[in-house]
Specification:
heterodimer; A: mainly alpha; 7 helices; elongated; B: mainly alpha; 6 helices; flat
Chain lengths: 160, 183
């Protein structure tokens, strides 16, 4: 395949990924986690059966990698408050109890594997730091709500 | 004469102190240099450098945390931001040192060096190293928000002084007029 033709295929794969798959996911943090899950832990290579069947494995890998980085940069650009909102939506989507979710994420730090490869190291530090802070904010709100149930109607943990 | 000597001594001490800190930082960073080798082929299309700095030192984030009125959250926030700020300063310093090393290697083989331009470049490099050292010192001592805080503190002080001076003048005027009951 010639270079321009390959570029067109990659762009089509990228658009397809955004239109069909990522648009159905509710938050950018959930999109990031989803895209990271398409990457092999050992090789770092992205896989997506549906896209590969339509556009070939190479274009699919490039599209997934580009989308992963784009979403990551978008999350880095968010304020802490916006990231807390993203995390709240993600907790709601997960259908886990907020307390258990926060505890697990603080203990295991699964969000570390959501970081794309070959990105600015300071951005990675900032992202990890912001997620840790967002978890602390959620934990604080959760404790506050448990201590004062009447406050839950004023400042609920989820679905503000 | 004496005050000039003191001023020069303080300046020399400060420069030496910052150089010592920078040296210490470099030793600390030796182990992480390999792990951080990815910075050499970082994405250039990433978030703009200034935007990244804006996010690290964001007042908006700080105010958001302050609104929670939790000393624990504020402490964690300070610590997290301090770590990221120090990482950014060290990386910037290291990146510039690497560029300068490459430049020196190229300059040694160059036949038509512009001495003035080289001197300017070296001065800018020293300036940057000095600022990086200062940022490390301020971030470690006062936290990453030290610079904006110091600026706003200076503004507050100048307002206080501005308000204090007319008051003092009025008080002196009243005192000198000999009105009873005035201090």
């Amino acid at each position: 395949m010639s270079n321009p033709a390959r570029l067109v295929t990659m762009n089509n794969a990228y658009d397809d990924l955004l239109r069909r798959t990522l648009s159905s996911i509710q938050s950018d943090l959930a999109r990031l986690i989803y895209l990271a899950s398409t990457r092999d832990y050992n090789s770092g290579v992205y896989h997506h059966e549906g896209l590969s069947a339509r556009y070939g494995p190479e274009s699919t890998r490039v599209a997934l990698r580009a989308a992963h980085k784009d979403i990551f940069y978008k999350l880095i650009g968010l304020s802490l408050e916006e990231l807390v909102n993203e995390l709240e939506i993600y907790v709601r989507i997960s259908r886990e109890a907020p307390t258990g979710f926060i505890h697990t994420w603080q203990e295991l730090e699964p969000y570390r594997v959501a970081v794309p490869m070959e990105v600015d190291s300071t951005m990675v530090q900032l992202f990890l730091s912001n997620i840790r802070l967002a978890l602390e904010v959620l934990r604080f709100r959760q404790e506050h709500r448990q201590a004062d149930p009447s406050a839950s109607s004023l400042q609920p943990l989820l679905g503000r | 004469m004496m005050s000039t000597a003191i001023f020069v001594a303080v300046a020399i001490f400060l420069v030496l102190f910052l150089l010592l800190i920078m040296r210490h930082e470099e030793v600390d960073e030796q182990e992480s240099v390999q792990a951080d080798a990815s910075t050499r082929h970082e994405c250039r299309d990433a978030l703009q450098h200034q935007e990244l700095v804006f996010r690290i030192f964001s007042r908006e984030d700080r105010e958001f945390i302050l609104l929670m009125r939790s000393p624990r959250l504020q402490r964690i926030y300070q610590e997290e931001r301090r770590k990221v700020a120090l990482h950014w300063v060290r990386r910037t310093s290291r990146e510039v040192s690497r560029i300068m090393r490459t430049h020196r290697l190229i300059a040694r083989q160059s036949r038509n060096l512009d001495a003035g331009a080289e001197a300017r470049l070296f001065f800018q490099y020293l300036q940057l190293r000095f600022i990086c050292g200062l940022l490390v010192l301020l971030s470690k001592t006062f936290g990453p928000h030290a610079l904006p805080d110091l600026a706003s503190y200076a503004g507050e002080l100048s307002q206080l002084i501005g308000r204090a001076v007319p008051d003092a003048a009025a008080a002196n005027h009243v005192a000198s007029s000999g009105i009873p009951g005035t201090p």
